[in-house]
Design goal:
The chain is α+β, with helices and mostly antiparallel strands. Helices cover about 70% and strands about 5% of the residues. The longest helix is centred in the middle third of the chain and has 45 residues, at about 225-270.
Length: about 375
Amino acid sequence: MRWDKDYLGRTFRYYANIYDHIDTDGAARRIKNGIWFRGPNVWILAFSIIIASVGLNVNSTAVIIGAMLISPLMGPIIGLGLALGTNDLDLLKLSFKNLLVMVLISLVASTLFFLISPLDLINPTELEARTSPTIYDVLIALFGGLAGILENSRREQGTAIAGVAIATALMPPLCTAGYGLSCLRFHYFFGAMYLFIINTVFITLATYVMVKYLRFKTVTGLEPATATKRRHMITTIIVIVAIPSLFSAIAMVRDTNFERNVEAFVRENRLVSRSYISDYRIYKDHGRKVEIFLTGEPMTYETQMDLYASAESHRIAADQLVIKEHTLGMTGEEMNEMVREIYDRTDRILSEKENQLNELQTKVDSLTRRVESLVMNPNITIAPPAD
């Protein structure tokens, strides 16, 4: 096969060309129809919010995904991007109004649910995951928005829009914000609302960029000065929203690295002289700290210094390590006696388990011999083994 210098370019254009597969007029109609928020859409939104709140309450990812699939929240957000990209001021006002109404209904529904819910949040990891937005959430919203507007613009509709709804996760932050209002935990409320704003802004931005790229029909009559002012406004909003999420991402990476360092440190120092680390806790509220709990004999000064040196080797500063000792009040001889008793008890348990395994192996061998006899002599009646 002969290669020429334009072969790769032609191949790329052949596979990557999207203009032959889109219908901008049909996409604009579908997006505008999805903006309207009345009648069934009101109830669908309320029901999906309750479903998502239940999922967050019971810490169920599957339930949350199901709620995101039936939520109509995406419509007005994509409408905002279409309105900005086509200079349609009336559509912009309508999309923004419907989005505000949706947000208010979502907050009210989720707040009421958490106020009356009899379930306690024992392990609220799904809630906490929506309170610390990072730059990764920005990227998810941006590329999810790009996929969403492309899916809306295709002549043949596929299933990508459902995946966009799941990936960008618009509903869980609103439910988490409702939880924060219901129990007056405002760090939940503000963190979750910030995540929702990130998703909204960058889905809108992605839609705006793709609408311009696909050359949707624009509303004529917009003055150049107004268009420039609008672009500056969009840029300012994006910077204001994105910068805090970048710092949050850096903090998240540092937290993860600190947790890994702590786990390695604890594994390496599980036994400390005549004591052992029975438990540890990591705190991130006011700086990263780890509190370890030692059980056994009191540590000597040299042992304590060795422990701090080991922490330093795992990038845990001395002021980040808090040592709590729980001495048993025993002499060295009493400690040795206790350890011997533990070993003896363990040996007895292991011996009993070994005897049980031997008995079971004997029964298995007996059954194996009987089965072999039955296979070799199928006319022989084999009596069942005694228990």
